[in-house]
Amino acid sequence: MSVPAVSFGVMRILHTSDWHLGRTLHGVDLQEHHATFLDHLVELVRAEKVDAVLVAGDVYDRAVPPVASVELLSDALTRLTETTRVVLTPGNHDSATRLGFGAGLFRDRLVVRSAVADLGRPVALPDVDGATGALVYALPYLDPDMTREALAGPERDEHGRQVRPARSHEAVTAAALRRVRADLDPRRAGGGARVPAVLLAHTFVTGGDASESERDIRVGGVDQVPSGVFGDPSGLDYVALGHLHGPQRVGRDGVDPVMRYAGSPLAFSFSEARHHKSTALVELGPDGVRGTELVPTPVARRLGDVTGTLEQLLGRTFDDRTDDWLRVTVTDDVRPEQMWARVAARFPHALVVQHVPATLRERAGAVAVTAAQDPLEVAAQFLLAAGGRPAEQAELAVVREAYERVLATERSA
């Protein structure tokens, strides 16, 4: 690898996120593939002498995970902490309370940061000499409706009440960053040796490329946080992000700290078929980020689409796709008899088989709806198409309120 294994004064951080333990892919149990990834992660940590693994949220796929997933995580953390330190935070899919249970009992090899009260208290990672080699500030997923009260600042309104942040992801994240800066700024002004600072956060930063498998986190119609919230004068060197499933760098070059999504280790939707899944191996020194390498994760099966008439699909053209997870689109004008059975015999790992006549595809090709779209926009388009007039703002407000109420119910489950 291009990053040297040992370098004086350098910390090696492995950034990963969005494991979604317990998730299925169109009904296929991914437990075995998650186990393969975690085996890979343990071996990578050992081979590359990683100083710390940072997990940026969505460890589980739901608030109450299956027992098998809890056992899988327990085993992985046990093996990882034999070699390195682990810092993890909950994402919007996790239950912060359940994931953080027992956090006070963990020792320095495993740190779970799930409470708003700990936002300004960094995890000090030791270097080879035992001195502080890096500071990690860990932000759990900050749901605006559930964290505004806890993030209220010292300012008071005319009634003497503490002023809460506005009801938005940007506002609560900015409030959290103020607590981080209140701790970091005095350290930077102290005149001693500069210690690199890392922020661990599960959020949607503006400019990131979403896929269809991330759960909607919109509040008030907005789900994103501008990168400038994390920028100067924060003093941060690296922002380890979670939530988006495609590995990617975000933020403004030369203005913001180095900001990167590690992405999910497995593909969870067909929109991720072209992703190159990886973890980010980051080299940190007193001068900040010295290098980043994306280490590919094991590919369980290729994911992709095949399209054609049934005759074409059953021919030799797609011989190289028989071991892949596939979404198969049959384009015959008339639905073929026993279509599913015949396709499944040809492609034993087909996850989706759909009949879309070629003429219909030509007429409807530009109106596909994906999970990445704002549901309010989709509802407005439907109302226009079905009712023949644009929806009124009052009608859209009712739709928005109902939708956000459903999201709130899911988050509190």
Q: How many distinct domains?
A: 3
Strand content: 15-25%
Question: Mind summarizing the main beta sheet?
Answer: 6 strands, mixed
The Rg value, from CA coordinates, equals: 23 Å
Give the helices and strands, then pairings.
Layout: E1 11-16, E2 24-25, E3 28-29, H1 31-48, E4 52-56, H2 67-81, E5 85-89, H3 96-99, E6 110-112, E7 123-126, E8 132-139, H4 144-147, H5 169-189, E9 197-202, E10 238-242, E11 248-250, E12 258-261, E13 278-285, E14 288-296, E15 303-308, H6 310-314, E16 325-330, H7 339-346, E17 350-355, H8 358-364, H9 375-387, H10 393-411
Parallel strand pairs: 1-4, 4-5, 5-6, 8-9, 9-10, 10-12, 15-16, 16-17
Antiparallel strand pairs: 1-13, 2-3, 7-8, 11-12, 13-14
Please provide a written account of the structure.
By secondary structure, this protein is of the alpha/beta class. It folds into 3 domains: 11-296, 4-Layer Sandwich (Purple Acid Phosphatase, chain A, domain 2), CATH 3.60.21.10; 303-364; 375-411. It is built from 10 helices and 17 strands. The strands form 4 sheets. Strands 6-5-4-1-13-14 form a 6-stranded mixed beta sheet, covered by helices on one side. Helix 2 (67-81) links the parallel strand 4 (52-56) and strand 5 (85-89). Helix 9 packs across helix 10. It is globular, with a radius of gyration of 23 Å.
Annotation keywords:
413 residues; alpha/beta; Purple Acid Phosphatase, chain A, domain 2; 3 domains; six-stranded mixed sheet; disordered N terminus
Structure described in brief:
With 413 residues, the protein is an alpha/beta fold. Helices cover 28% and strands 21% of the residues. Helix 1 (31-48) packs parallel to helix 2 and helix 9 (375-387) crosses helix 10 (393-411).
